[in-house]
Design a protein that fits this description.
By secondary structure, this protein is an alpha+beta fold. Helices cover 20% and strands 32% of the residues. The chain has a four-stranded mixed sheet with strand order 1-2-4-3.
Length: 66
């Protein structure tokens, strides 16, 4: 499982999300969002997430990815 750490961010959360692949599972830490906001942030970047209810997410669908 991957982890996005906002305090060590060098590329931005949206760009990091777009580097993930279908089925990738991840957690987040040190971000300026509530956990419930993460799926909405992802959809703005063309990614649909499944909320695993254990503070992790799984990439379900990606739009416009080459």
């Amino acid at each position: 499982m991957k982890n996005y750490d906002g305090s060590a961010d060098t590329i931005g959360f949206g760009k990091w999300l777009r580097q993930l692949s279908l089925g990738d599972r991840f957690t987040v830490s040190n971000i300026p969002y509530e956990l419930g906001e993460i799926p909405f942030v992802a959809i703005m970047h063309g990614i649909v997430l499944a909320d695993n209810k254990d503070s992790s997410f799984t990439v379900g669908k990606q739009y416009g990815k080459n």
